[in-house]
Every structure is written in structure tokens, then in C-alpha cells.
Amino acid sequence: MPTPPTPTEPPATETVPFEGILARLQKVVDDLERGDLPLEQSLAIFEEGVQLSRAGQRRLEEAEQRVERLLGDESGGVRTRPFDEDEKK
Predict the structure, then answer these.
(1) Is 78 in a helix, a strand, or coil?
(2) Rounded to two decimals, what is the model's pTM?
């Protein structure tokens, strides 16, 4: 039986790249889905996952704001339009 991972202090997410947040979040999900961790360890890892999820969401919102600023028109408005599913094909 593999040794369960030891919860560690999550790194300050401000300095971790978005891709690093996603990778760690995937590891958290994998560890929890295995279902072989003690309750306290599962709770600690779950808490880390929630923090990572929130940090990732903040990063996405910041990126969206940056894109909107870049797409701003001369009058200060934002030129946005809904994503068209047909465009990605």
C-alpha cells in the first residue's frame, strides 16, 4: 500500500504560475479520489484544493480583465462579444 501524501503548506499562490495551480489541483483531486487517506489528511488536502481553486479563479478573472483592457475602444468602452462555438472548429 503506498504511503499517503503528507499535506504540506501550499506555496503562496501569488508566485505560482496558473499551470502550476492546475497541476497541484489535479494532484489533490487524484489523492482524494483514491479514497485511502485518513479523514484529517483528506480534510487538509481538500482545504488546499479549495484554496487552489479560488486562486485559479482569481487568476482567470484577472486575465479576463487584462483582455478587456486590451480590447477597449477609443471611447473607453469594451468591445466584447460572446464566444462562438463555431469559431473553435
Answers:
(1) strand
(2) 0.67
